[in-house]
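Researcher: Here's my situation. A collaborator sent me these components and asked whether they could plausibly form a single complex. I don't have experimental data yet, so a predicted model of the whole assembly would be a useful starting point for our discussion.
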Amino acid sequence: MEATLGTLRRQYVLFRLGTEEYGLPIERVQSIIRYEVPTPVPHAPEMVEGVINLRGQVIPVIDLSQRLLGQPHEVSASSRIVVAEGDSGLVGLAVDSAHEVATFAADEIMPTPAAALTAETAEAFEGVANYGERLVILLDPEKALPRVSYGSPTATEEAQS
Amino acid sequence: MSDDMSAYKDVFLSESAEYVQAITEGLLALESNPRDLEPVEVVFRGAHSLKGMSATMGYTRTAELTHTMESLMDTVRKRMQSADSSLIDLMLRAVDAVKELIDDESSGRSVVDVTELVTAIAARTSVTSPEDTDPVALDAAGSPVSAEDGALLRVRITLAQTCVLKAVRAYMAIKRLGHMGRIVDTEPTARQIEDEAFDHTFSVIIRTREAEASIVSAVAAISEVEAVEVSAEEESAAPAVEVRSTEERPRKSVPKLAETQTVRVSIGHLDSMVNLVGELVIIRSRLDRIARDLGNAELTEALSAFEQISAELQHEVMQTRMVPVGNIFNRFPRMVRDLARDLERSVAFEMGGLDIELDRTVLDEIGDPIVHLLRNAMDHGIEPEADRIAAGKPPKGTIRLEAGRDRDLVRIVVADDGRGMDVERIWRKALDRGLVQSSERDSHSASDICMLTCEPGFSTAEVTTAISGRGVGMDVVKGKIEYLGGTVTIHSELGHGSRMVLTLPLTLAIIQSLLVGVGEQVFAVPLSAVTEVVSRDEVKLKTVDGAPVVVLRDGSVAPLFRLDEVIGSAERRLRMPEAGDHIVLVESGEQVRALAVQHLHGRHEVVIKPLSPLFKELRGLSGATVLGDGRVALILDPRTLFGMGATR
């Protein structure tokens, strides 16, 4: 047997947020659509931009830049929404651009350089990989996609007090 | 069991549940009037049908138990013994066991053991019915067949070569024959038929008084049955199975359920039909918009016909999902009876509005909340008999469960004439639990305070005081009802009883709504919550404590909220509505509130799309919908909206 765990290959959808490039396992990505301005949801957590109509289904759009980089993303012509399957159903991830699929073998993935990361976002990263000249941060879908517990209860409480 | 079998296993499961229910109802009716022979017939026939069905399915233990039940009831209908309470208890135990057995056998297990029960029933049957001779002995002796038994016939049924679901067709044929007489045997065996271990022909040996011709026509009416032959069967050839001499029941004895023509459809099909019709409604409004823009008269006309048809289709589809509340209410009398016995309470249980219909999905969900309310009424509402007499009340308590329709809402009321709720004690307890501040006392009505029992933190482990138990599960009840888009209200008078009112939407999927707008954003307000829409100039605006209110025509005052402030992130600024704003009066719980909006976009039917679980903590929204132009509109939830962005 030639194949070992180290040579197991996995495909990632690559997308860009600001100057960083990220990858999400392709099996988690349902589609990539052109960015459209979501309908804002009052009192939703900050990282939720709102909801969009995806072929009759209403799905939330997450500002991944807000979540990972702590700053809202800027809309441009290349902006896309990556529709991914999260633990709580489909979610849209607003990204600056998305166009490539890359394949990495398990032994090409290196641990994230700890110094470069804040404690909060580190858990969302599975590792990094070199893609040509570029360094791609690979996301752990379980941790990078928001889970139900993120529905911050403080959003409503603050407004009430 | 083959895959095809599962199709008619489902049929068996749902039909058997109906018979179990019919038997339970019959037994309860018999208990209240032991001289009445009609419920005896119902129970007897129910047991008989169950026996036949379970034997067909190869569920031998169920067949055995229901056989003994049938025999016991036979002695009652022949007036060989009376239906006293010990007999009813025995039968009810047997009914419970049947449910467990069916569950057991249908899932291929063999955990449930009913030997003891079978023996007990058999003992009860034989003790009081000495003349009931051993069935096998009777047959072995070759006793002449009594006229009542009818003739023994062999029905040879040939299915079409193309028939795919042979077992299902065979089951239908056997079932139909079962209604016409007593199935004595089949060739091949029931098990082999079930496994489709036959070519295309099988035979059913039946004892019946029906004419041959009517048997032929009944069976031939089943689709994919190619040929039916009936011939006389040698008496001696009849195996000694189930040859117990029972009176043949008359043809009209088929349970009532079979009288209306129905087809069983899986709820999954109905759900997808509703979704598809929902999409149709969306496309319809999109087409409407295009037609308006184009101004093409022919198109508009065609569209209006389309609109009419799709509205009818939608109505029909929604109608198929409507189920009378009686379907779940009917299990409560038994529950209340058992509970009354356990708690040693004397209670008359009344039900009303059983024919009120609710969407299937809603109905499935409200069973447990109602059980909670009934338990509470029994446990904490109705006093022990001595206490009632001391309080000058009738010794027997009354619990009433009633459904009623009000516009597109259904109200379900659980009322008791028990001790009622002690508002002051509840208030003190809520204070203890830190749910309220003592300064807020004046702003809470008695009903508000009763509602505190629905707060998650209200009830704790110590359930000793008269009122504390009220909180058990009330938060669960409220949560479930609100999840369904409904509301819970409580009315209670100390010493006189309580009324719990559940208000539920008729259906979940499509609602009539009023579309309102702030700036560019459109929101939908469920029309069921809208009482009136007025322009700003039509009403008197005032301020109370600096907060704007609307003075309604009848002089009452409703607090006024601006939608932009309610949904805005900033705290409420308590501004008066702008000129040109519209004021929508909405019912929020039991209160009327005025909502000032910038735009009115009219009345629309919207399909409710659930919001992602990510938003489950958010108050004020009950879902989203897709408008004709593809935009998303959030559906406001008037019950929780006003707690959302504003101070109370």
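Model: Some features of this prediction you could bring to your collaborator: Chain A has one domain: 7-144. The longest strand of chain A covers residues 9-17.
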